[in-house]
Structure of Amino acid/amide ABC transporter substrate-binding protein, HAAT family:
Amino acid sequence: MPAIHLRLGAFSAAFAIAALLSSGASAQKKYDTGATDTEIKIGNIMPYSGPVSAYGVIGKTEQAYFNKINAEGGINGRKINFISYDDGYSPPKTVEQARKLVESDEVLFVFNPLGTPPNSAIQKYMNTKKVPQLFVATGATKWNDPKEFPWTMGWQPNYQSESRIYAKYILKNMPDARIAVLYQNDDYGKDYLRGLKDGLGAKASSMIIAEESYETTEPTIDSHIVNLKASGADVFFNVTTPKFAAQAIKKNAEIGWKPLHFLNNVSASIGSVIKPAGFDASQNIISSAYIKDPSDPQWKNDPGMNAFDEFLAKYYPEGNRIDLNLMYGYTVAQGLVHVLKACGDNLTRENIMKQAASIQDLELGGLLPGIKVNTSATDFAPISQLQLMKFKGEKWDLFGEIISGDVGG
């Protein structure tokens, strides 16, 4: 009898150890759909065609960056499978592509989908499905709403913060300004306009003397510029995407309208906006920045810029180096890699959002010195600092301090 007891005791001890080991293994590795021991499947939606196709290079840069990460062994041994679809900046198409990514491709999450109307169209779907809509490529204020939409998070400084910073500058330097606004007729354009009015406060109704909105389906915004000039405004707030921003700068020069020109940050790229519009026509435009401009000689020996150049040379040699959208794609991809590394072997959707909401003072090589990425469970706005800049010669000159423009959701 004792021998049997011993054998049973040894068996139960071995069983207990095995159970312990297996529970330890499962505690170490947790996966949701789209993640395995060897792969992390990431979805993305970009306007590779349509009215804002200039932004398509963001998706191409991200793909190139993930190729770099994969070539270096992946993230914790896992390769990134980046699936990127075109929606032509059309919200119904965005919905179709998001469903395809989540239900057919079975991605772990959707990363950096571009545009305010497209992201607005999929926000409820992503949150109902509990699939992260992470680091969306739009600065609308509504992405910072962790209570209502815990699965959606922004990335860049929000549009209202940016507008308030311009309003502050106008109030200080041109208190009697007569302001004309051109804005895209959607959530993106209206967010900027709201921020400007909030920033001007009680003076908004007297200072803003003309507003013109345009649709992305319009071939040109020339007639809007003519109308705004006729208003007699001496400040022009230009809330447009790249194609229309270049048109506006050109038309201003053509008709000899020379107001103090504020250009929203999303169209500050020298490569895709300023150069096509013409350097002469772009002098003294004011915008804002949070990432380094590769065309600016001040970053010539900057380690962050050197790393960017090495990346482009090896993984995206055909990319237009002076297009600021490449630096944007590079930087947000680095932000995502930081989050995925922090997830370790717990690649659940819940943990991805948890790690994305736990970033503290992250410095990335492409961000301006002093600008850091910070998030928390109650703050889904990773970057909330900007610096003003003025276009001189063939480059942007940064001026003033780094300004924080926090605006709640």
